[in-house]
Amino acid sequence: MVKKNSMGCGYYVVVLVLLFFGATIVRSDSSDHKYKNGEEVPLYANKVGPFHNPSETYRYFDLPFCSPGHVKDKTEALGEVLNGDRLVTAPYKLDFLSDRETEVVCKKSLSKEEVARFRDAVAKDYYFQMFYDDLPIWGFIGKVDKEGKSDPSEYKYYLFKHLHFDIHFNNDRVIEVNARTDPNALVDITEDKEVDVDFMYSVKWKETDIPFEKRMEKYSQTSALPHHLEIHWFSIINSCVTVLLLTGFLATILMRVLKNDFVKYAHDEEAADDQEETGWKYIHGDVFRYPKRNSLFAAALGSGTQLFTLTIFIFTLALVGVFYPYNRGALFTALVVIYALTSGIAGYTAASFYCQLEGKNWVRNLLLTGGLFCGPLFLTFCFLNTVAIAYHATAALPFGTIVVIFLIWALVTSPLLVLGGIAGKNSKAEFQAPCRTTKYPREIPQLPWYRGALPQMAMAGFLPFSAIYIELYYIFASVWGHRIYTIYSILFIVFIILIIVTAFITVALTYFQLAAEDHEWWWRSFLCGGSTGLFIYGYCLYYYYARSDMSGFMQTSFFFGYMACICYAFFLMLGTVGFRAALFFVRHIYRSIKCE
């Protein structure tokens, strides 16, 4: 027994050590370089794409910009590649403290086809993104003149040909960089004809007293403006009121009802032992009857527990400041690494619970656990990656990155899943049931329609969703837009509220189900807990059509494809929370009465 516990402790020590090193690697991306006067500071062009379609991005030089003699790709981390970043050397020279006045990058004669490509990009509000000393730079590549014109065929399309860089420095460090286009330096690309363009740029250096350690605060402050914080705190207060009302209502109702039930059942036992039982005590011999498809149920619990652990670790890293703005790919790196390292938790939970339910084929259960979430995610990725390849977008993962992810799955995720499963099988834990289960199940009485699974799921999912829907907009605007989200403390509070509301509403619905003498509560509690994920996916439809300007097959596929995976993850995680809360409640009430 001691040996087994030491193995478990050793596993978690290894996990924590690897997480520490993973966090260190994630943070090491930020530049911390000191420069001398005239020294070259690295400037990388990243990508271009339609402003309203964040997933549809292309390499910078997919458009016929001025190209340096030798385009060199920057070596990127796993998270940067997953984020769609493809950094290459830019054609501009921004040496430290070297001002430049109207420098010509190149003189280029654009063919009809190149003019048409630029015009199409300008019509779709293409933006560009660069990184200078790891500081982000954005700008639009052109503009559409619609003034006084009602017919789209009369619109004028212009390409910006002059880019001005304002760079702030403090001693030998780069602190801030901004890029703006010259509104007077335009090239008319309305017609399909060859155009000669002189691409130019200028640089102005300015001194600032902002310390290097605070140079990223400019980006994080945008999501912490007073009017934004007021909305966030309104969301928190709204959620807290929901929690307090729900908690108070449930505590009052359940405590009073349960107290009456306990008094009634105790009186019945004293008065007449042969009197027929009613209510939830009547089904005490069936309430702990193991659920149908116990292998799938245990696998869902294992996957949900792993995803809950993953979420807690991600919040921990966010709260200690790892995911500062424009730490490129840090979140994706953390998600891949932590998911791989926590797969042992899924294996242990699923195998242990499956054996408690007297399951025999634990190997098949382990395979089901490994594929329950990864399977749909893999199929979604294959489809979306094929779409990205067809569009020649940067969202298409290179073959080398796919190999790396496969190796992580084969060498880390799968072995840890198997080790966790073996440990779970050998735990020899028995299911703690206060009442003995009868040999034959009782027949469930005919119940009204609103006590069915779907109406109960609708009721169970609405309250938790109502507690988080205000915060959802900001999260969507950050993930599927260009808004920066850094208020992780508020998000963590909302997450805690979500967990509490999910647990309470599932407990309440489980009690009403048992009181109606319906003993098949196992799957129902899981489905009711996870139903919030379905509401979030419903919100995706609303956000896409009412709150965003996303369009096109690729962007639509990416939005609904990956949001389906995220909502499925919420379904598994919150379903696990709901079942665990219901199981704790059911054990408690049946332990409080005498069961023959």
Automatic annotation (TrEMBL):
Membrane topology listed for this record: Multi-pass membrane protein
Spans traversing the lipid bilayer: 231-254, 296-324, 330-354, 366-391, 397-419, 457-476, 488-514, 526-546, 558-586
Pfam family, one: EMP70
Protein's cellular compartments: Endosome membrane; Golgi apparatus membrane
Coiled coil region boundaries: none
Gene Ontology BP term (one): protein localization to membrane
InterPro entries in the record: EMP70 (IPR004240), MFS_trans_sf (IPR036259)
GO cellular component: endosome membrane; Golgi membrane
Keywords associated with the record: Endosome, Golgi apparatus, Membrane, Signal, Transmembrane, Transmembrane helix
Family per similarity comment: Belongs to the nonaspanin (TM9SF) (TC 9.A.2) family. Belongs to the major facilitator superfamily. Phosphate:H(+) symporter (TC 2.A.1.9) family.
Protein's recorded name: Transmembrane 9 superfamily member
Organism: Nicotiana attenuata (Coyote tobacco)
Gene expressing this chain: TMN3_5
